[in-house]
Amino acid sequence: MTTDTITLAYSVDSDDLFMFYALLENKIPTEGLVFEHLRFDTEKLNELAATQQVDITAVSIHAYADLTDDYLLLPHGGSIGVKYGPLVLANQPGGIEDLRGKKISIPGTKTTAYLVFKLACPVFEPVIIPITPFERTFNALKNGEVDAAVVIHEGNLTYKERGFAKILDLGAWWWEETGCPLPLGGNVIRRGLGAEKIAKVSALLRKSIQYALEHREEVMDYLLARETRSDRLLHDRGLLDHYLSLYANRDTLEYPEEARKGMEILFQRGYDAGIISRPVTIEFAP
Question: One fold for both 4-80+184-272 and 87-178?
């Protein structure tokens, strides 16, 4: 059987590796396909997709708005916040109104966290600090380099131990605004692969997610054994279990209808606010 190499890029956070564990460790047959695994922080992944450097990549849903000509959104692999999402943190308690005009760290201008925060607080000075490692953002906040920080991924679960105050949960804010879950991230596949290969690869990715959900304890053991980030809290099984329950669950197998509706509203509001440059038509792969 001939082999084809497919480049597969995803973030350093646990839910992405959870999804692709079965492919990475050859737990499922790949039908002649070879997957080259690449891992980067969220904003780097968005940049790779913008220049079509990879066949499949995890991206922020906000970033997908600029990718529709070259990529399809896969119907599985989404990170969806249901009344929860990225957090806005500060050194002292306060309200979102206190952040108007202030310096706020963000993980990147194409992240969904930035888009939603911009909708909630239109006037602020963004300071881009990549989310990896978390210490960069937390140190900038602690040292007063920024007035508040928009935090994504596992950083959302470790802020209390660091002594920070939660100003706003953007997923909860979005739910109150729209009544919909907040679609934060997804996986996209390059149109240039062609319809037949896209369908084949999509089916394999779905099987990989299904395997992880059915072998959750096995995958958690793997994730903990291979965690390379220095934050000791990321080596805690209870925290990992909670994080995966939020972002690697049954909704990861297929975007629920309400999440698809939330995505449409997100793109429309982003366009209406001038944050997204053009109307977005969402097109899913098989």
Answer: yes
